[in-house]
Amino acid sequence: MHLGGLPCNIGARITQSLCLLSFLFPGSSEAEQNPVKVKVGISKFPRGANFSNMSKYTYKDDKLVSENGSYVMMGWERPIMKKVAELMTKNGGDVLNIGFGMGIVDEYINELNPKSHTIIEPHPDVIEYINENGWKSKATILEGKWQDFIGSMGQFDSIYMDTWADHRTPYINNLLENHLKIGGIFSIWHNDIEFMTIVDGLPNNYEVSYVYMENNGLIPTKQQDMDGYYIDPSLEKITIPIIKRLR
């Protein structure tokens, strides 16, 4: 998988339609070299929104659902999570996943056999699922808020973050400076406005690039029991952002 294209300037705000990139589409044998305008959708209920994440979670019908009917995660995400796992394990090193959810990305990471695999998860219902499904024998499980582990973990070659209802943006710099190895990569479930805020706060020892997947009807139109969605089904392409630590 091609990880980069042209790195973006860290000091300025970035939109996907203005940043010159080269990237590899799934199933393509060569990288596109032309800038592409990509429609960006903003979720009504984005992952990472700042509200309580301790409501009851239930696993049902290939979904993880909160008690108010919000879909925390859905099975249709598997192709995205597979691509993420391939990126996170590309160098075979130490991988940290923050936010277990349905365990989709962790299943793919486990299959790719990295040097080590660590998972951080705070939600008691998800932790119960982890325990019942034997994950403590597959990975190192840290139970609690990831923000509370900053400074007390080792360093990782890759870090992926996919959390729900989590006040996370102010803490990401500290996470990367303490726990991402030089040459390592960080990625996050993509929300355009949030990611621009993260990028604006990065020091100059990081570069940003994007990997794209074609939507082609992958994103369902119904993503909540109520009105709304966490990723726009009309997107042309699905974005996987990459932050690489240079030094």
Q: Would you mind describing this structure in some detail?
A:
With 247 residues, the chain is α/β, with parallel strands linked by helices. It has one domain: Vaccinia Virus protein VP39 (Rossmann fold, 3-Layer(aba) Sandwich). It is 18% helix and 24% strand. The protein has 5 helices and 10 strands; from the N terminus they run βββαβαβαββαβαββ. The strands form 2 sheets. It has a 7-stranded mixed β-sheet. The N terminus is likely disordered.
Spatial extent as radius of gyration: 17 Å
- Principal-axes shape call: globular
Strand ordering within the main sheet? 6-5-4-7-8-10-9
* CATH architecture classification: 3-Layer(aba) Sandwich
Give the name of the CATH superfamily. Answer: Vaccinia Virus protein VP39
Straight-line N-to-C gap: 23 Å
Which percent band covers the strand fraction? 15-25%
Q: What class, by secondary structure content?
A: alpha/beta
CATH class: Alpha Beta
Question: How many β-strands, per DSSP?
Answer: 10
- CATH domain topology: Rossmann fold
Low-confidence stretches: 1-53
What letter string, H or E per element, gives the SSE order? EEEHEHEHEEHEHEE
**What is the percent of helical residues?**
10-25%
Number of domains: 1
**Annotation field: number of helices:** 5
Q: Major sheet: size, sense and barrel closure?
A: 7 strands, mixed
Quick recap:
The protein has about 250 residues and is an alpha/beta fold. Helix content is about 20%, strand content about 25%.
